Amino acid sequence: MTAPPPGNTSERRIAHLDMDAFFASVELLHYPELRGQAVVVGGRSVDQPVMEPDGSRRFARLRDYVGRGVVTTSTYEARALGVFSAMGLMKSARLAPDAILLPANFDAYRDYSRRFKTAVAGIAPLIEDRGIDEIFIDLSDFDEDSQSLARRIKQAVFDATGLTCSIGITPNKLLAKICSDLDKPDGITVLGMADIPDRIWPLPARKINGIGPKASERLGKLGIHSVGELAAAPGELLVRHFGRTMGSWLQQVAHGIDERPIKTSREPKSISRESTFQRDLHAKLDRDELSEIFTGICLRVADDLARKGYVARTIGIKLRYADFQAVTRDITLSTPTADGRLIRKAAGECLKRVPLDQRMRLLGVRAGTLLPAAELAAPTAAVQAELPL
Ligand code: TTP
Ligand code: MG
Ligand code: MG
């Protein structure tokens, strides 16, 4: 995708979605009895809750924490007491001694991250992955109004995860990122370019993604605190203090201008595995050993395909002889597959088509022309495969 040509007046619709108190909210799914309490994620494994004989759980409290750990995230109840991400745990214990402390459980967070992204992709497939708990979504092609789209996406996320998120929908990524944070938690903020003076200009300049603590301090010294003050600052003043590139960027963003397209992650073109032998092998003399290695490579390719959710229409081999010459062969299957035995069979066919009188040092198997596996099951989803995901 490219930015719209200059003079194009049709506004894009870009959403930024960010999960609410993400790690802490995932923990509350596991410990629902903690709902409504100040909870902090950031402890060590010794802070794991302990099951009491009566079946209840005993949780670690912030006041008992000794060490140098920091808060990874906190529930909104803990934030109300002044406890935020990156604060030292011992310092936060002074503000909220009774808060519950839990160790982080990254596997669970990654799992819920995948779940919410898949749920959104089921509604709107043009997604830019921005990390574990946030995405941009290009909604420009929808006719539906922004509020109802946002509600539908939030509902899909909730149905898939039991978690709430906040969404900003605006004409670009810059504004969407700001807006997803304006009504947290569980919020929806929709705005257009005309709303910038009322809604964006009163905000502190550091709300703009890219204006960090250093830049905002330097702006402060120039008497510029809000986005509106930045928008009103003379261009040459900004260029003088920040250089041409940063100076003109500051001016643009203060006016809410941002043409960056959504960068959707590419579908992989192929998945391959190869193995370099410990010693050079001969097709006939080392037949069993070679066959075992070959099958192993095919099974790993099959496993990669299954894990990533693809089926392959072409299977190929790469072979490097002892003299470092390489050859490749491939074959197109009548039906796309992720089945290890079928991949092995097809790769075996390829192997028959290469000269095998010389010893080999490397063998590789490649699955190409990939399709999402879901499409084999649901041909109606074929349209989606044409989108530049
Ligand atoms: P954020 O989206 O910044 O925060 P959050 O989801 O906890 O809360 P909010 O409702 O304000 O969005 O970060 C997402 C997760 O990333 C967060 O749950 C924990 C992790 N994280 C860290 O590990 N260290 C940090 O300094 C921050 C800010 C977040
Ligand atoms: Mg978040
Ligand atoms: Mg986030």
Automatic annotation (TrEMBL):
Binds 2 magnesium ions per subunit. Its cofactor is Mg(2+). Its EC number is 2.7.7.7. Residues 14-212 form the UmuC domain. Keywords: Cytoplasm, DNA damage, DNA repair, DNA replication, DNA-binding, DNA-directed DNA polymerase, Magnesium, Metal-binding, Mutator protein, Nucleotidyltransferase, Transferase. The record marks 23 as: Substrate discrimination. It is found in: Cytoplasm. GO terms for molecular function: DNA-directed DNA polymerase activity. The active site is at residue 134. It comes from the Bacteria. It is an enzyme of class 2 (transferase). It catalyses: DNA(n) + a 2'-deoxyribonucleoside 5'-triphosphate = DNA(n+1) + diphosphate. The keyword Translocase does not apply. Mg(2+) binds at residues 18, 133. Monomer. Poorly processive, error-prone DNA polymerase involved in untargeted mutagenesis. Copies undamaged DNA at stalled replication forks, which arise in vivo from mismatched or misaligned primer ends. These misaligned primers can be extended by PolIV. Exhibits no 3'-5' exonuclease (proofreading) activity. May be involved in translesional synthesis, in conjunction with the beta clamp from PolIII. Belongs to the DNA polymerase type-Y family. This is DNA polymerase IV. It comes from Dechloromonas hankyongensis. The gene is dinB.
